[in-house]
Amino acid sequence: MKPTAHPLRPKVGTVRGAFRLGNSQIKRVGVSRWNWSDSYHWILTLSWPMFFAWVLLAYLLTNLFFATAFYLVPGSVANARPGSYLDMVFFSIETLATVGYGYMNPATTYGHLVASTEILLGMAEVATVTGLLFARFSRPSSRILFSEAAVVTNFNGVPTLMIRAGNERSNLILEASVRASLVRREHTLEGQLFTRFYDLKLEREQSGVFALSWTIMHSIGIDSPLYGKTQKDLHDEGTTLTVAISGTDDTLNDFVHARQSYAAEHIFFGHHFADILSDKLPGPGGDVRILDFGKFHDIIADGSDDGAASGGAMAHPG
């Protein structure tokens, strides 16, 4: 039977300033909208297109501001065409970049003061953008891939929650550790609605080397918060499953991490992961095994004629 892929989450509307957890979006209110001390953090979190858009906007506004300053005092720039704002813009661009072609130059004390201010600001802007570019490029990142769905299936006769993770880079993550938590709404004895976090006990929480794939497993015993639950129960309780992996990238020699969250509708009971690790195949340098990331998100209903999930699906980190 051909494996069936399930998307992790449907398309949902995005709320400005909201934090997403599973399918839930949490918006903070009652806090200040902006704090200058957060500028650096905010810039680092921008997407690359948005970052370059802000750099371009700052560049244009700076040149237009100083071009206007030159334009408002005629005669401040020598050899500029009288009344030509475009000449002032080009002179501002040359001054900001400290190019100094020599055709136009400040002609008055006022012109020299404006040009000196623009040069100083230009050097500061170049240094700032250079630093931000370096910080964005040098920020360590992981290529840890999580399965688009979590599954609950029997493993050695015990109902087990499983999430698949894989390292998409051809390197190692050393001293990798994983944590999984269950978040759900509960009513207290006083009748108050309370959000509770449960840390899930995993079959294996640490690995010296994470190189290929890792099936994260939680046995659903009597002490598990998932014991006796169905998908409907999880949905009614607003359950969200969160998973986080962290470790040291052996290439960057720096700490990296990744996380994923699953809403109740993304936890499939009675399913298992498709096998992604092939048998040994002959190769020019000896037998090789293929890890097929094309099937990484595929899940199969239990009892299908493909058989139970085998070594590739149940692989511990390696």
Write the layout of secondary structure elements.
Blueprint: E1 4-5, E2 18-21, E3 24-27, H1 39-45, H2 48-71, E4 77-78, H3 85-96, E5 105-106, H4 109-138, E6 144-146, E7 150-155, E8 158-167, E9 173-187, E10 193-199, E11 206-210, E12 213-219, H5 231-236, E13 240-249, E14 254-263, E15 267-269, E16 271-273, E17 298-301, H6 311-314
Helix pairs in contact: 2-3, 2-4
Description:
This is Inward rectifier potassium channel. The chain crosses the membrane at residues 51-73, 85-104, 110-135. Its main location: membrane. Residues 60-137 form the Potassium channel domain. InterPro entries: Ig_E-set, IRK_C, K_chnl_dom, K_chnl_inward-rec_Kir, K_chnl_inward-rec_Kir_cyto. The radius of gyration is 29 Å and the shape is elongated. The protein contains 6 helices and 17 strands. The chain starts with a strand and ends with a helix. A hairpin with a 2-residue loop joins strand 7 and strand 8 (158-167). It has 318 residues and is of the alpha+beta class. Strands 6, 7, 8, 12 and 15 form a 5-stranded mixed β-sheet that branches. Strands 9, 10, 11, 13 and 14 form a 5-stranded antiparallel β-sheet that branches. Helix 2 (48-71) packs antiparallel against helix 4. It is 26% helix and 31% strand. It has 2 domains: 36-138, Helix Hairpins (Orthogonal Bundle), CATH 1.10.287.70; 144-314, Immunoglobulin-like (Sandwich), CATH 2.60.40.1400. The model is unreliable at 5-19 and 307-316 (pLDDT under 50).
